Amino acid sequence: MTLTLLCGHSFSGKSTLAAGLAELGDAEVINLDQINAARGLDGSKALPLEEWAKTNDLAHRVAAEALRKGRHVIVDDTGSPCFIRDAWREVAAEAGTSFSLVWVTIDSARQRERVLANREKRGRMDVSDDVLAAHGDSFEPPTKEDPILVDADDTADPDTLHRVALAVF
């Protein structure tokens, strides 16, 4: 069993990648936006840090339980700042399982295209421009953590999915 953290900016394709990997590896996906929604929180707006801390604690408990049951776990989150990634490493270590970090990269122009397309089609929850800007400004890229890199335009590509699945499962 493994714990895989997907890291990257909003609208980079992490959820698409998570779904594809979950299918290939019979893994449980833990999506922090969905946890916030279930808690009645609007993730499109800035949330207080204490609410994010509660969401992370809940996600850690869900992941630990799935790992105890012998399931692979994929965490669909931005994975920033670095202490968030470190906390997920601890969850994996406590469960006695491996940890993988997958960084889905996207440039700001492509991200903007996706945000605007989503606002037109309403394919997923929107994120306000203020929240996107704040996240972009504070994002701590995992450049020194040897992540598995995936380009945002390749998150649904079968070859990319198989390459990442081989690396994490």
Automatic annotation (TrEMBL):
Alphabetical list of InterPro entries matching this protein: P-loop_NTPase
Name of the protein: Putative kinase
Molecular function terms, GO-annotated: kinase activity
Originating organism: Microlunatus kandeliicorticis
Record keywords: Kinase, Transferase
Domain of life (superkingdom): Bacteria
